Input
Amino acid sequence: MKSLAARRHDRRAPIVLLALALVLTGALYAVLAAPSRADAAPVTTQADAQAGEKLFQANCATCHGMGAVGTSVAPSLVGVGAAAVDFQVGTGRMPLTMSGPQAQVKPVQFTPDQISQLAAYVAGLGPGPEIPTADMVDPSKGDPATGMAIFRTNCAMCHNAVGAGGSLTQGKFAPNLWQTTPTHLYEAMLTGPQSMPVFNDANITPQEKRDVIAFISQQGGTQPGGLDLGSLGPVSEGLWAWVVGLGLLIGAAVWIGAKSS
Amino acid sequence: MSQVDNYQGPTGNLPDGHGRAPERFENPGLPAHKPRLGDVDPKVDKRRQRIVLALFGVSTLGTIGFLVAYFALPTGRDVATIHRSNLWLGLGLAASLLGIGLAAIQWAKSIMNNEEKVEERHPMASRPEVREAAVRNLAEGAKDSGISRRGLLKSAVVGSLALFPLTIAVPLIGEIGGDWNVGKLKHTMWKKGLRLTIDPSGRPIKASDVTIGSVFHVIPDGLDKTPDPLEEKAKAVVLVVRLDPQVVKSEQIPGASYQGIFAFSKICTHVGCPVALYEQQTHHLLCPCHQSTFDVADGARVIFGPAKRPLPQLPITVDDQGYLVAQSDFTQPVGPSFWERLR
Amino acid sequence: MTTTTPPATPTGKAAAATADWLDQRTGIGVAVKGLARKLFPEHWSFMLGEIALYSFITLLLSGVFLTMFFVPSADEVTYNGPWSALQGTSMSAAFASTLKLSFEVRGGLLMRQVHHWAALIFLAAIVTHMMRVFFTGAFRKPREINWVIGFVLLTLGLAAGFSGYSLPDDVLSGNGLRITDGLIRGIPIIGTYMSYFVFGGEFPGTALIPRLFTVHVLLVPGAILALVGLHLALVFLHKHTQFPGSGRTNNNVVGYPLFPVYTAKAGGFFFIVFGVIALMGAAMQINPVWNYGPYDPAPVSAGAQPDWYMLFLEGSLRLTPGQLEVVLGNFTVPLNVLIPGLVIPLLLLGPLAVYPFLEAYATGDKREHHLLDRPRNAPFRTAFGISILSAFFVLVLGGSNDLLATHFHLSLNDITWTLRFAFFLVPPIVFAVTRRVCLALQRKDRELVLHGHESGRIVRFASGEYVEVHTPLDEDERWIRVQHEPIRPVQIAPGEDSRGVRRKGYKSDLRRQRVSRLFFETRVEPVTPAEYAAAQEHLAVTAGHGDGAREQIGAGTGPERISHS
Output
């Protein structure tokens, strides 16, 4: 007990505790977040929305304006729905820290509770897409083959055939999807963040969206043929053929041609 | 030799008194052979022999490993087993091959005689008397054949030899291009009243479903039932977007859109890749193959890249049930340019 | 050979009997006598062509395996194999059989990956081999024909690669075919007919896969095999070139015999090439067609590029601006496709194909050359080659611009604009810089020959003067640096004789002189014995000031020599 008390006086203690708390929250979030939030989504209270409004005014109103009606630098958020907030804030894209071709994924700035409060506030401004339930994004319930066909026609031109990412114009890019959570994938399709088009439920049905998620969840892991070389296609294969293949073979030729001592 | 402006050679620096030195250095001749350690020390020689033996052993082990992997590691319906089989078969094969290769080279380098030998070269041209004999032989042969005296015979030989390949070429060229009906390139299966449906599910699209910011990849209704679905699809694929009337700068064909819903051919006017990459904020369409960029809000005009012409617009409207339908076929050929596309 | 005693062992007897049997029927003894102890010089760069040959043999072996399982047909089937993301998808029999041989045939995936890696290495080895031949001047008389054969082999290699790449009928290669179709259609007058000729009707059709299969497994490999035979026969006939060095002359070959040294080295190298490719096939995934899906004209994926050897074409298509398309009367001429697709490859590859004849024209040299040049001693050639390579490199970067954009956080459009300018600016700059570097290296050689190595030892003379001691080069070191002949621009007879009458052929002589000056006007000549003697004298005079340095000079007597009569 004494030692514990002594350590409490250590000046590093708050940092250690904070780190522990963060790790714990992170772990809990990873384990519980999706189902609990999904269940919570329909039952957000008036109190949540009020807390969200406070958060919004403190963190977002500078750009998006009071009442989220938009300014010259940022769009109106009336009618974008809870899904857009959960995606933009939940992936760390918002709040924006610097201007650039597009918002980047960053460490998330808010707790899951705060995100759902913000989402509740924005959802209250006007009707918009809602956060999907855990069931709607469950990869095990989707059909990867249908998902691949949908993905190939609608997504692969930007995100690459297996979601490894690709380039857009003027420095913008379509990100890699392998680390994106199923919920965020769903929300991205539904809300069309930034350059990405909207894929509403008439275009890609909720069932088909789950199929796409099932397909993406299979990507980025072990490959049948060995190392995936970034899954970038022939350019990276060519580079490796020169570096590894020809490199080793020229090395062998030098060895063969060298005089033995 | 005349002294030229850029000349940086040495003649100018030559001291006057050295006119008699030879023009070129002499080749000093082959240096003496240095024996290897293994040539003089039998112990080293023994050790090198053992290395070669060990490498051949590695090869045999590799082959055995390959066979074991073949029989013991079946491929199932999951990635892990396919990966495992490929990896171990490959490693076995590599060991089997590299063992032999390294052993042979180690043998050549460390055991075989490594004294360099010298061999003379001879000029490529045959000796003059051989050449003369060859010319004489040819002249005799030509005389024997009598071809120089009979001009008609010469033309007959040349003529028949030149003509006979036609027996192969004519049917080949006649049949190889299918029906040779290149006019098909100018038309697609779109026609008045044909519904726009979602690729690949084939669901028809209500005008109200096309919200601002969304993009639909579209095929004609009944594509699967046509005799050549791939050829039709290669020409008929279309991309549908709805634009806020405020952002529309110009229209390619007045009256071809329906309430801000525009349909453009998805086939690039450069070399025909599917132009599928739609940036909804800027209304730009980008081709991932060669990065031609089209501004959908400006009649699909080219704003960057190697394409010249805008993407052809498909005139659309709605039927009485509110589904999007074509007004007609495209008003110009889709896809890459060709010589007679305007004829 | 001192003794010809008959072999006593049973195997020896059997071998002798077989040899006798064969010789009585073929007279093969002549060939064996001539070839068994034929000498080949040793250098690692002489093995680059072998890498190409052995990866080609690897291609043949793995390719035969693949043909047993591949179905070259566009017939539609529904997939029901182990790959869950494609189950129930309709696809061509070609694509389905590719999946089957990858996932259900044990060792099939390995052979497919070996085949594809071998193809990439085959072309990479051809290119590096050609670079070696080019930069050392190994294409000079009498080897011009073999250079041209090698060039044809390069184009056949490209054809083999392209036809094979398209066989699995996946989305990625299908879009490559579509681009090819767009290119063919752009050809004036006959373009659309050429497209029908290739595809058997409208794109994509069902004829192409079987046609490509025949091209890929019969026509192109047959032609490659025949030309490789000719290529190697000419190598044997000409005897291999060698690098300059003590005892190596234009009239001899210094090296090791074919049997046993090169039988072991070359044979062993085949197994190493195959083994390294097998290692790559085991550990590195290549062309995962199951990720791209079966061909369908509607989709395309980011990173839509061909294999590396076609990337320069992709780059030139990407970089050329669209404004070049013109309409003449009623006819469309898509120069935005024809220039990058046909003209630029011809402009870059054409000069390479005819370079041996170009250089022979400029030198006016009719002699045989069996001693290689050190690249620095041929500044124009080296600079020319590097500048063409730099143009290819710019195009390859252009073909990868989307990946450059994502991986280096750049704007795609900025990269394209930069490379558009770079294509015109980089090659001349590279030419000038390379030529300067070559001349500087030659000057360094002169400096070394005349003054020796810097020893780092400072000597103080009695007079108080400090001098660094230079160690003279030994004979072998010096010979490498002085052995080459200086090539000077051709001299021509004056245009008018003493009576002022213009002579015939003066104009063409003048043209040749202009070309020759372009090649050889700027040059550094090797040290002559006279210059060397003068430098030695100068050194001796300075060394005469004190005693410290004297010992160092004249210490460079070479080792024992073998006469090379």
